[in-house]
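Narrative summary of target 7.
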Amino acid sequence: MSSTPTSPGTVSSDHDVLVPGQAALLRITQAIATAVGLEELLLLALRELTDLFHLSHGSVLLIDEEGQTGRVEGEYPPRTGTPCPSLSLAGDPLIAEMLASRQPIAISDVPSANLGEPIRKLFENRQPRALLLLPLFAHNRLIGILGLDGDDENRCFTIDELLLGRVLAIQLALAISTARIYEDARRRSAELATLNDIAATVTSSLDPRQIYKHIVQKLNEHFDVEAGSILLLDEESGDLYFVMTIEAGEESPVMSMRVPAGHGVAGYVAQTQQPLIVLDAQNDPRHYRKVGKDVGFVTKSILCVPMLVKGRTVGVVQLLNKVNGAFTEEDAQRLAAMANTVAVAIDNARLFQEVARGRDRLEALLNSTEDGILMIESSGQVVTANPMLGRFFGLPWRELIGRPGIEVMQEIERRTKLASPPRPAAQNGDSGETIDLEVLEPEHMFLRQVKLPVQSKEGTIIGQLVVFHDITEERQLEQLREDYTGMLVHDLRSPLTGVLNGLTMVRRGLAGEITDMQRELLDIAANSGQAMLGMINTLLDISKMESGQMKLEREPTSLYEIVDAAIERVIASARNAEIEVRNELPAGLPLVEIDREKSVRVLQNLLDNAIKFTPAKGTVRILGVVEQKDSGASVVISVQDTGPGIPEAYRRRIFEKFGQVEGRKVKGTGLGLAFCRLAVESHGGEIWVDSQEGQGSTFSFRLPLSA
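Modeled conformation, tokenized:
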């Protein structure tokens, strides 16, 4: 083994190494900027590196945070077949040397070198002659090893190549670290959203079957599997019984089927309280085949985790046949963490059902739940309260029983203020009105208040249940997520601007003559970059307006000028879509003190939406009227389309960030209407939509005539 470069006589010239190296550094930087996810990042980088060093193969071994195990996560040409398992790094001499020296290692005779198993995994099933190992350090920690190898017998690596490789390895290590942080944040955000959705269903539904169905649907979507099930434990017999199975989005007929105690993967997991992955179910003796045979479902792979509440098994969650790839240990860890939350939710739902069967069991539930609960009977008196309610609001909870419910709610209102507008009850009657509260005393926190109707067995309303759920941590996590997103978006703008400037210079011929085809491709890239920059600027503007940091440049402005400018920006897309845009503003509208550019963007966004959803040969109209009310004079501008209309359930949500109507073929970022709302409200106005499904929508915003 040789860990030293070749003799000075073989060192390549600057023109041979440094100039291609600079070009490669630029290409790798571009790959880092454009890669979607860690896998694509590694593939693009390895392709450039193998080409730069004239080698046939490249691999990246990534090391876990503890530095004990590693796995080959990226290869070029890409690996086919099963993924590489985790490898122990303990005692590997090359890794120890690399960790100590932080320098590249060049090996000119691989067959005679003393290499450990982790390094050999970098060129598994091949027999290269030359090997270059580059340490990947990020944040002063060895996160991986980059290996480049080839078949040339006399291949020696020059000093310049080693220096260049070290520079490129630093860039790649930082990109990998950033990609890992981003993917981890995105995964945690998705997990949090899934858990929040599940928690919202549990706290707003009285039907356990609907709760189970919603949980399994969300888990199936999150982990991308063909089928998923929840099995609960029968404490008397030890059997597991299916309470819900979703296959291909539909309920499967396995309801109430039972798995005998200790049988199958589910029985094993319930007894051991440990997650289990089975990658080849048909050849695994632990697989319980009877259920699949009865319903005609072929199980290929299984991920099963226990549902635990205070160390007690209440059931298992089982996912079958991952669509893309195989189940991993990371999947098992994530599902196990989510299953514990699901277990608590399911356990609470089961306890709630027991409350409906008898008041004598109610107190045990109320004293153990972490939610504050207040029950008011139809006569208006409080019949139930719990200790958590007293802790939340500093009230003697036992003394609340027998008092008028309206007095108790007024006492709670004096200790709180609204943290979000009310969300009305769903039309199916399963959930009640929900609001978020900020508790001011005795302890600052955030609570979600849900009002639920309490029904008798005959279906008549016999009272109202008010549930207060502590969402303080959720709000803090949401704020952290907002701060992280804002920081990320802000940091994206500078490199994107640099990319656009570079494209502009190339299009102008500063880097040499370009062909018509190249110009067309550059135009596409520039337009896409400008669209991305527009989205980034919109996100930043929204963030500033939400935090109150956006300054308005008000000046007396003609509304006719605003409308003309907005129409000019959308007229090309309107013509392409065969949509007629009519300016029907009445004569004599007064000047308004507004921020001209932001007002143009508001109207432009509304016109863009109208054009998107209006069918060909349709019409978009712009209307205006001056209104005089007790609060003062104002002007209302409306954009009317002839599109499909908006369901009532979405009319409030579409003005929130990323809020969209589900099921629509036309998709956007979900930021345009959020910007409109914040911009109009910052002017002291309001925005709303009037719509009738199948007959179009009218978006209107009101601006006061006196600021």
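Residues 1-18, 426-430 have pLDDT under 50 and may be disordered.
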